[in-house]
């Protein structure tokens, strides 16, 4: 595949899709509503030996986030209580750490709209602006063609989301690596 493509007749630079430039991102949120705030962030990076480095953190809600968007049903799904979130790092510290760690990388997500919303909420806690490329998982594996897509989906078959951000980000990273012929 070439380094560029034609979109509406204009040259459009594709994001870097090699292992060194990708970071896989996942959020877990306080409820099912699209306006729900993030309660956990996870990232994963494929290492040169094919292993996956995972980072995940629970997020103490920012005081400006609407408490009524917390869903007690999500406690059952994520096994994270509202009380537990009171003792973890606050949203502004998480924002500063993660926004710096993903700068310059292409973000891959299974839900780009939700993850952009959650990144925006975190960035707002530190009055930060950013420009990141967030690529859907299917777009990230498309360059590997049908055989790669088939490998990625075979890898994921039978795997259920863990509903923990770090583990779910790692699962995406491993499926991408499978698509790139890393796992057989």
Principal-axes geometry comes out as globular
Count of runs of 4 or more consecutive helical residues = 7
Could you tell me the strand content as a percent range?
15-25%
What's the CATH first level?
Answer: Alpha Beta
Largest sheet: 5 strands, mixed
Q: How many separate domains make up the residues?
A: 1
Alpha-carbon distance between the termini?
A: 23 Å
Secondary-structure-derived class: alpha/beta
- State Rg: 17 Å
Order of SSEs = EEEEEHHHEHEHHH
Range of helix content? 25-40%
Give an overview of the whole structure.
The strands form two sheets. The chain has a five-stranded mixed beta sheet with strand order 5-4-3-6-7, with helices on both faces. The protein has a two-stranded antiparallel ribbon with strand order 1-2. The chain has one domain: Ribonuclease H-like superfamily/Ribonuclease H (Nucleotidyltransferase, domain 5). It is an alpha/beta fold and 184 residues long. It is globular and about 45 Å long. Mean pLDDT is 86; it is low at 1-12. It has seven helices and seven strands; from the N terminus they run βββββαααβαβααα. It has helices spanning 72-78, 82-85, 91-102, 112-125, 137-141, 145-156, 165-179, and strands at residues 4-7, 10-13, 22-29, 38-46, 52-58, 106-109, 134-136.
């Amino acid at each position: 595949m070439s380094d560029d493509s034609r979109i509406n007749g204009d040259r459009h630079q594709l994001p870097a899709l090699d292992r060194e430039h990708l970071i896989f991102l996942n959020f877990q949120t306080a409820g099912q509503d699209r306006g729900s705030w993030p309660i956990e962030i996870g990232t994963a990076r494929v290492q040169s030996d094919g292993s996956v480095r995972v980072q995940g953190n629970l997020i103490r809600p920012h005081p400006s986030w609407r408490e009524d968007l917390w869903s007690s049903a999500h406690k059952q799904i994520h096994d994270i209580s509202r009380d537990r979130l009171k003792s973890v790092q606050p949203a502004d510290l998480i924002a500063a750490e993660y926004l710096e760690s993903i700068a310059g990388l292409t973000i891959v997500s299974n839900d780009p709209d939700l993850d952009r919303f959650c990144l925006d909420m975190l960035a707002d806690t530190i009055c930060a602006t950013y420009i990141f490329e967030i690529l859907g998982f299917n777009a990230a594996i498309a360059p590997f063609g049908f055989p790669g897509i088939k490998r990625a989906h075979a890898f994921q078959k039978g795997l259920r989301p863990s509903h923990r951000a770090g583990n779910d980000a790692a699962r995406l990273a491993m499926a991408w690596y499978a698509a790139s012929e890393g796992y057989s």
